[in-house]
Amino acid sequence: xxxxxxxxxxxxxxxxxxxxxxxxxxxxxxxxxxxxxxxxxxxxxxxxxxxxxxxxxxxxxxxxxxxxxxxxxxxxxxxxxxxxxxxxxxxxxxxxxxxxxxxxxxxxxxxxxxxxxxxxxxxxxxxxxxxxxxxxxxxxxxxxxxxxxxxxxxxxxxxxxxxxxxxxxxxxxxxxxxxxxxxxxxxxxxxxxxxxxxxxxxxxxxxxxxxxxxxxxxxxxxxxxxxxxxxxxxxxxxxxxxxxxxxxxxxxxxxxxxxxxxxxxxxxxxxxxxxxxxxxxxxxxxxxxxxxxxxxxxxxxxxxxxxxxxxxxxxxxxxxxxxxxxxxxxxxxxxxxxxxxxxxxxxxxxxxxxxxxxxxxxxxxxxxxxxxxxxxxxxxxxxxxxxxxxxxxxxxxxxxxxxxxxxxxxxxxxxxxxxxxxxxxxxxxxxxxxxxxxxxxxxxxxxxxxxxxxxxxxxxxxxxxxxxxxxxxxxxxxxxxxxxxxxxxxxxxxxxxxxxxxxxxxxxxxxxxxxxxxxxxxxxxxxxxxxxxxxxxxxxxxxxxxxxxxxxxxxxxxxxxxxxxxxxxxxxxxxxxxxxxxxxxxxxxxxxxxxxxxxxxxxxxxxxxxxxxxxxxxxxxxxxxxxxxxxxxxxxxxxxxxxxxxxxxxxxxxxxxxxxxxxxxxxxxxxxxxxxxxxxxxxxxxxxxxxxxxxxxxxxxxxxxxxxxxxxxxxxxxxxxxxxxxxxxxxxxxxxxxxxxxxxxxxxxxxxxxxxxxxxx
Length: 761
Ligand SMILES: C[S@@+](CC[C@H](N)C(=O)[O-])C[C@H]1O[C@@H](n2cnc3c(N)ncnc32)[C@H](O)[C@@H]1O
Description:
Keywords: TPR repeat. Residues 1-42 are annotated as: Disordered. InterPro entries: Gramillin-biosynth_MTr (IPR053209), SET_dom (IPR001214), SET_dom_sf (IPR046341), TPR-like_helical_dom_sf (IPR011990), TPR_rpt (IPR019734). Residues 362-554 form the SET domain. This protein has 761 residues and is an alpha+beta fold. It has a domain at 631-744. 40% of the residues lie in helices and 15% in strands. The strands form seven sheets. Strands 2, 3, 4, 5, 6, 7, 8, 9, 10 and 11 form a ten-stranded mixed beta sheet that branches. A four-stranded antiparallel beta sheet has the order 12-15-25-24. The chain has a four-stranded mixed beta sheet with strand order 13-14-26-23, with no helix packed on it. Strand 6 and strand 7 form a beta hairpin. The chain is elongated. Bound molecules: S-adenosylmethionine. The site of S-adenosylmethionine has 17 residues, from strand 14, helix 13 and strand 23. S-adenosylmethionine binds at residues 372-375, 449, 451, 478-479, 516-517, 519-521, 571-573, 575.
């Protein structure tokens, strides 16, 4: 049977997979005990030394156990909760024993200090103490994992947690769980909040901008950018000669750049450049600004800044090189001309395959639909195969801990009724951090569809962005796409009958904000494909301006003979396209009669001893009779597969006329209206064959056209070239590009579908 295209959108709930459901059950059992403790004060239940010892033993065990022995690690949370939106100076300070269990201690903050090294599995975790010496576990979710590394949190570092959520953990110990990045402040050792007993001795020499700059430089050399930024910021608080201030600002900008804080890097540079007489050479400042703009995909501004740099400082080879790179991105952004073959090679060189390319927005725009929120619409006439959008992922993740033998990841983030794992958790974490570091990106991300999640509308507190992790989670749930490393790879392997395991299609997960505006229709008019983290959307039909562009969240092609509407429950709606309506309106008896014929055909096609063609054709006609509407109005998905398989059989038995007849019928089943395909006259010209209306697209459509092309070569040679052109357009729609078409398909292949034996990814 044909292997059908992998699912499109991704909504992945793993709560029914055995290890996760076991973990969920265990948590439910524990929840009664936890309920009883809710609201009680977090008075220590074990001595400090025992809690530290238990944590240290677990930490050492985690380092020494091999990967195979890692169990599913789960993190349960009973319900989403909003981040703290109260400024720190409006909160009251609390000690551990003032906090209430299983409670979000609103109106309070707590100052803590780490007394152990950190450990990371689900969260960055350490034992922390308060000023009274009481200890508990601190779990920081969604933080950069580097925080647990040599450049991260050190023993003795101070941390403020706003409105701490105190939990009773699975081992009975108490812990503070922090899900929102803005609920945590890492407090520099020299900050006023730090009590004297916790302070490091500060000598006079420390209290100068030079010494803070030197400290900053030391941290910078160790790639401890958070600490370096703290020191540079402290240095800038002092009176300093302008030259020194500019150097410190410049160093801080580089630390911002290296830690992905591009907004802050641009701000720092602009402050420097706005000074009437910047005393340091501003080439560094301009260069860093151009780099930060590039990282934010603001290529036009990046090019302008590099140009300014080249004018002011001619002869800088690095600036010339970077200008060329930014100009190449700008050209992609403006024209949609990409070197797709090169991009495919790049996917082999990079892991994860995040490509250095720009987003092209073709003739499309976001607009309100009548009944399902926003949608994507054409803004001009479009032909089948035209590029509508080539979008770089906003964020892209891979499940690093994925275990192919079990199909599971040891990471799991769970709610009572659902579980995420691996790539989801990774993606949520990456996006949360990106937004936290670059608030200029917040607005456009938060505009994405969020389902029923109701979030507060505060975006800044204490001068820092507020990112609601649970809102990010909902947006990911509604908008993320699962993707293979490249659609060409999936296409070739499915043609060869070695489709990648289903999990490989979900191996990468990403958010493509504009593409995610597309609503679903089984009777779609656009297809998305991938080259690494670039998503390519092409029209599958000729479209008039102002047409809503629709794609598949799940493919309506299902294996087996049963017909039912696609399950779109994870997105909270049911499809009401004409295909789904037709299934809903068909009587049980019609559907079961059709199913019966299809089952007979299926067993014939899979049997080594085939009956006479006439018998098969009679059954095919009976299938046709079960449909009441013409295929050009309502595509017949099951009939398409049946005709296609028969056409393949005919091709294998060297019956070119029959291949033409049934290959065309197969395409017509998908809604294609094709003129001149059956004429088979010697007088025909290439132009006699014409697709008047395009139907549904699938990887198998490429095979069908190639099969037709081979048959035409024998019975109507004039039509062969046009059939190849249609195969090439279909290939372009399915894999995103047609530069590799002739490396993949050829008329001289010994396969009936023309796939070349040399075709490989
Ligand atoms: C990824 S979003 C698509 C864009 C969304 N309409 C918006 O306003 O941003 C997915 C959501 O769109 C809506 N949606 C998509 N296709 C739909 C359809 N065929 N019928 C009804 N609602 C649909 C559902 O609410 C779904 O959860």
